[in-house]
Design goal:
6-stranded antiparallel beta sheet; 2 domains; alpha+beta; D-amino Acid Aminotransferase, Chain A, domain 1; 7 helices; Phosphorylase Kinase, domain 1; 5-stranded antiparallel beta sheet
Length: 260
């Protein structure tokens, strides 16, 4: 594919102009960051794994009627997505106490929450993505009340589906981050799911051992980051089980073997 004009580069992805109006090419990098980019590193092969995992989850969500920006995967590191206007809010869906929630409220990490909790953060790296309320969102016009209803409804639906998806493969969905975008049609817009869903933005714990299979391995200097991401891909059926030491190239061989 001919390299197209770069539109934006973030911490984990690069966005390029798409082949058709209204499309974007999303490229997954191996760069890893934590604590608002205060900690930086590289996880070799992470971009390939996240591309495949996100493609898989977005495809399944699309199949149950959740509107997303995903169109199709182009190659090992790129996927074609719809161009949207990103809503400047990160939605964090929490099922189990962990990370900043445990620190803020003094709740033991691993405690099951009485109910699923939705938190909203203002997307601004310079400010450290501060925690906000729906009152902030309404006051500053970051999203309309109708959009927030749609966002909350989709977040709960995605959580219900993903909790079952991961539980079926022995993984506890602790929490995860979602981003949404406005898809415009003339003067009208609707909110759809955007960005990615991968171990970069989810806390995924093995149900039996409690082992972390996500970016906390990088955040907390636990090591074994790529092996954890590979384990998630393997359990989702995206990597061959028979390979003792799979590499990112196995993903492409597996894809060709399955004809996809």
């Amino acid at each position: 594919m001919v390299r197209r004009r770069q539109i934006y580069e973030g911490k984990a992805k690069i966005l390029y102009e798409g082949p058709e109006p209204g499309t974007i090419i999303q490229y997954f990098k191996d760069d890893a960051t934590a604590f608002n980019a205060q900690k930086k590193g590289t996880i070799n092969g992470k971009g390939v794994l996240n591309n495949r995992i996100s493609e898989h989850v977005f495809t399944l969500l699309g199949n149950i009627g959740v509107p997303t920006h995903f169109i199709r995967r182009l190659n090992m590191r790129e996927q074609l997505v719809r161009q949207v206007e990103i809503v400047p809010i990160e939605v964090v869906v929490r099922n189990v106490a962990a990370g900043s929630l445990s620190k803020r409220l003094g709740i033991d990490e691993g405690a099951q929450l009485p109910r699923t909790l939705l938190e909203y953060y203002y997307k601004d790296d310079a400010l450290g993505d501060p925690l906000i309320t729906e009152e902030h969102i309404a006051c500053f016009g970051w999203a309309s009340q109708e959009e927030m209803h749609d966002i909350a409804d989709m977040a709960i639906r995605v959580n219900d589906f993903m909790s079952g998806l991961f539980a079926a493969i022995g993984i506890r969905l602790v929490d995860f981050k979602l981003e949404f975008g406005r898809l415009w049609d003339g003067d009208y817009s609707r909110v759809i799911l955007a960005d990615e869903i991968s171990p970069d933005g989810c806390r995924l714990w093995d149900m039996e051992t409690g082992e972390k299979l996500d970016k906390d391995r990088f955040r907390r200097d636990l090591g074994g980051e790529v092996e954890a991401y590979q384990e998630v891909a393997r359990r989702l059926g995206l990597m061959p089980e028979e390979s003792e030491e799979p590499t990112v190239l196995d993903l492409d061989k597996h894809r060709k073997k399955k004809g996809g």
